[in-house]
Structures are given as structure tokens and as C-alpha cells.
Amino acid sequence: MNRKVSIVIEKDEWGYYAYCPELPGCQSQGETFEEINLNIKEAVELYLETLSPEEIKSYLSQEIYTITMEKVISVWLSPFILEKPYIPKLLNKY
């Protein structure tokens, strides 16, 4: 029986990192996208070999949802902070 698993792949300055949310601890890394694909597939196969049929059914029956969000981070600076005379006024206050 074929089952599907979710794979999350993240890229950072050191390469790629991948993990499977349904299988705790099932993760891998690689320098290229092609390498991480091969590595995580192998990691999932090896992980599943260690599980009983009941455990496989339990792990792979979870519903995992993934979304991508983009958040623009804006910085608000108080106009009081931008006024240079404000800082000495603040210090003189105390």
C-alpha cells in the first residue's frame, strides 16, 4: 500500500535541511536540492522499516497541513526619538 508523507525542506546559508512532520526525528540535510531530496527519501524509507504496521498506520494517518506565509516587517520609529534634542531633554529630566 502506498502512503504519502509530508516533507518540509528549508534552505539556509549552509545548504538544505529537510524533515517529515509525521515521523518524529526523521530528518536529513544536503548541500543541494537534489541531494536533500535523495537524502530525505532514504531517511523516510529507513525510518518506516523500523516501525510495525500498526505504528505506520498511526503515524501516517495524521493530517498535516502546510501553508506559506509572507510577512512584511515594518519598523515604526517614534517622531520623538528622531528629534535629536529629545534625548538630552530626557536625560535632563532625571
Automatic annotation (TrEMBL):
InterPro entries (UniProt xref): HicB-like, TA_system_antitoxin, TTHA1013/TTHA0281-like
Coiled-coil region: none
User: Domain HicB-like antitoxin of toxin-antitoxin system spans what residues?
Assistant: 7-57
Q: Which domain of life is it from?
A: Bacteria
* Signal peptide coordinates: none
Write the protein's name: HicB-like antitoxin of toxin-antitoxin system domain-containing protein
Q: Which organism is it from?
A: Thioploca ingrica
